[in-house]
Each structure stands twice: as structure tokens, then as C-alpha cells.
Amino acid sequence: MPIPKYIPLIAFSLLLGSCNNKQSAAKQKKEPIVEEVAPSAIQVLNFGTFHMGYTSDSKTIEFDEYDKKNVDSIHQIAKKLARFKPTVLIVETVPDYNPTLQKNYATYLSDSTSTFEEPNEVELLAFEVGRLSGTKEIWGIDHKLQYNYGIGFEIDNAIDSVTLNRFQSDPFAAIPNLNLFESGLSLPEKLKRMNHPKVLDLLITANADILTYAGTEEGFEGADEAAKYYQRNLRIYSNLNRLNLKKTDRVFILMGGSHTAFLREFMERDENYEMVDTFNYLN
């Protein structure tokens, strides 16, 4: 019986298909399998603010924490920051206050219309960021340590009273376009300026380093006071490191600007943390 002429064509097609399948399989074997890589460091949004309620700071920014427009503006900022999706909130309260802090936060999560007797940036901003992000954990890491900002005016300064007085009379002279006390600034603009790297550097100088220009003939009164502020912030950092944070955590830290500045310095040199760009969440 004669073989139909179309059989060889079918056989060739099958052979070609078989070759293609083998080549495809070989190609698939060569392609690397992409796996999700766990972050090598804890992601941190390190955010500085002025104190929105009572504060003992020597210089403060006027702010009415009970004004509805202010609260609405804060919540708009919280909405932007919540895009970071933190798993942990860190705020400027002492660890001993954690049970109360966590109780207040739970109350806010169950009813965001809850009001607090003396609200500040913790209740107004951190709580709202956490609510929008579904964050469960919140911790305070502050450490109280008294020191004297005004030591340079209380001693017979034999180091350099000219430099000290010039700086303290106008700390923003070198960066006037970032002055936090400029009149008419909106809340978002104030917070953008607060988190600018040049302002964070300035806050370390204003709160500590400038005091190295104050001291008696053979004394180090200013430097010793500045050392206390470094010590306080190092202890705050130590409190942060006491927390059982995981590499997969995303941590939102809300502190007064000078603490944010010190934490930035410490975390930049610490392989356990990786700070994200704050302005990615403010713009």
C-alpha cells in the first residue's frame, strides 16, 4: 500500500515540535528562579516634628492642637506618611509610659473620633499614621535627662562669647530660606523644613555643639552640658535597640526634631537600619 505524501510532512512537524519543546524546556531550565529576598536591614521612616502640645523646650512653634483645621491638616500629612506602611510606631514617650500609651492607641484604633485631654503629636499624628496603616505595635523610647541650654549666659565665658551670642541670636542666619519660625508657614511646609538635612544638622548644633563655645578660663561648662544632650540621645537610641524588631519590620519614628537629627546620625552608621527618604512621603 503506498504511503500518502503528507505523512513525511506530519512527521517533520512533529519532529520540529519536539525540538522546540526541548529547546523551550532547556531555556526554562537556564532561566534563574527569582525569589523574594528578605531585607538586609530594618526599614525606617525617621520623621522629625515640633511638639504640638505642651513642651519644656526653650523655643517653641505656636500651634493650637485643638483647632479643627490644624487637626485636619495633620491628618492629611498622616495620610501621606501612612504610604510607608509601618509595622511598628516609635514615639517620644518614656518606656514606663508604654502601658498607657498602648491603651490610648487601642482606644483610638477602635474609635478614631476619640479625644484626649492634652493631645500632642503622638495622638494627633502617630496614632493616625498607625490607624491608616493598620499598625499594631507602638512603643516609647524617650529618656529624660536635664541639662542647661543657657549655661553660656550664666558663666564668665572665656572661650568665645561673640560666636555663641551671634548664633543664638539668629540660628537660621546661614539658612534663612529654611527658618522654622518664619511667619505664615503652612503646617506641611514647617514639617518639610524640619526634616531638611540642613535643619537637622542645625538642630544638633543649636542643642549641643554651640555650647562648646562656652566655658570659663580653665573650665568646660558648655561642653559638659552638650555632652549631657548627646548622652540623652544615645540613651534614646539604646532604648530603640532594646526593642525586639525584626528585619522585616517597617518602623515609623516620630520624635522632636533634634532627636530625629541624632537618630539619623546613629542609624546612618548602623547596618541594622536603613532609613528611607522622608521626602518621598511628604511630596
Topology:
Elements: H1 6-30, E1 42-49, H2 68-81, E2 88-91, H3 98-110, H4 121-133, E3 137-140, H5 161-169, H6 187-194, H7 197-207, H8 221-242, E4 250-256, H9 257-268, E5 273-275
Parallel strand pairs: 1-4, 1-5, 2-3, 2-4
Helix pairs in contact: 2-4, 3-4, 7-9, 8-9
Structural summary, described in words:
This protein has 283 residues and is an alpha/beta fold. It has one domain. 45% of the residues lie in helices and 9% in strands. It has nine helices and five strands. Helix 7 crosses helix 9. The longest helix has 25 residues. This is DUF5694 domain-containing protein.
- Series of H and E elements: HEHEHHEHHHHEHE
Rg from alpha-carbon coordinates? 28 Å
Structural class: alpha/beta
| Low-confidence runs of at least 5 consecutive residues | 1-27, 53-58
Number of separate strands: 5
The share of residues in helices is 40-55%
Describe the global form.
globular
State the end-to-end CA separation: 82 Å
Strand order of the largest sheet: 3-2-4-1-5
> Strand percentage, roughly?
5-15%
Number of helices: 9
Mean pLDDT: 87
- Total domains: 1
- Tell me the major beta sheet: 5 strands, parallel
